[in-house]
Design brief:
Shape: flat
Order of helices and strands: HHHH
Largest sheet: none
Number of helices: 4
């Protein structure tokens, strides 16, 4: 996988718990983040056609807001 961030950087960034994750807690946020990222990468690889080029975009790059932000 070609990524602009190294694997440790991805795990560190994802290990910060989302609000719903923080509500229930985590014994090991980094291990949880690593498992989530591995599963996500596996799903990306499995769902691609052989000649597909995968683009990574954020929602603000793909969705036109219907209302101006507050």
């Amino acid at each position: 996988m070609s990524d602009e961030h190294s694997e440790p950087d991805r795990v560190e960034a994802r290990s910060h718990l989302l609000p719903e994750e923080a509500a229930v807690g985590s014994d090991d946020p980094e291990a949880q983040a690593e498992a989530i990222l591995t599963e996500s990468d596996d799903r990306e690889d499995r769902n691609m056609a052989p000649d597909t080029v995968l683009e990574h975009r954020t929602s603000d790059q793909t969705v036109t807001p219907s209302e101006p932000p507050d």
